[in-house]
Structure formats: C-alpha cells, structure tokens
Amino acid sequence: MFFKVKNYATMQTALDELCAFLTESGIPQELVFDSKLIACELLGNVLKYTGGESGLHGEIKDGYIGLKILSERYFALPEKIVCSDVLCESGRGLFLVNKLCDGRIISDEEGIKVLLKIDK
Question: Strands 54-61 and 2-5, how do they pair?
C-alpha cells in the first residue's frame, strides 16, 4: 500500500488506511496501534520540519511490518537516538519510534524505513 501525504488531513486518511490494511491482514491490534503511532510520528516530522510532501509505504513481509516514510527533501536521523527527558519536546518521537521497532530503523536518501516484528 502507498499513500501520498500532502498535509495533516491527508496524513489522517493515510493512517486510517494503514490501520485498515493491517487489520484486514490479521495483524494483532497492539501492532496496528504501534504502526499507526510510528507512522504518525515520522510523517508529522516530515511535514513539520521539511515543509514538503511525504509518502507512506507499508508492507507485510517475512514476519515483519515494514513502513517506509518517503520525503521530497532529505530527512536524516540523528546518529544516536536519545531522549534526555520524558518532557523533552525534541527527539522524544524518534526515541519512541526506535523503541517500538526494537532499533530496526534505517534512514537513506529516500526516507526512513522501520520494521516491526509481528510475533513479539
């Protein structure tokens, strides 16, 4: 599945479609929620910090949910993802994403890809 995300309204539609896709594929609801949270954090970062459009690509393959967040502009992850304080407004979202996908997060010129293991 792939969705173009131009703004926060289309982001909501993409998230709803992602949840429907995962639910119809038999993914447990806790992983559907985790996937939605991860996609929301990453798509929101692209919209907020790059000012450009983004895309959401999702797939289920080899026991993983794969989410790729595409960006018109390069959006690199920091070398080390840390959160110094739970009330910190900067970096907390990426910290949560990294923890939810057990560190399976990759950044390249196309965007950010995360993998969630289905049989946690």
Answer: antiparallel
What's at 88, amino acid-wise?
C
28 SS3 class: coil
Contact 117, 105 (CB under 8 A): no
Query: 56: closest CA among 45, 67, 72?
Result: 67
DSSP class per residue in 67-106: EEEEESS--PPPSS---S-TT-SSSHHHHHHHHHTTT-EE
3-state secondary structure (DSSP) of residue 6: coil
Give residue 75's pLDDT: 65
DSSP structural state of residue 51 = -
- Whether the predicted pLDDT of 17 surpasses 90: yes
Comparing 76 with 35, which gets the higher pLDDT?
35
Q: Give dist(CA 117, CA 75) in Å, integer.
A: 24
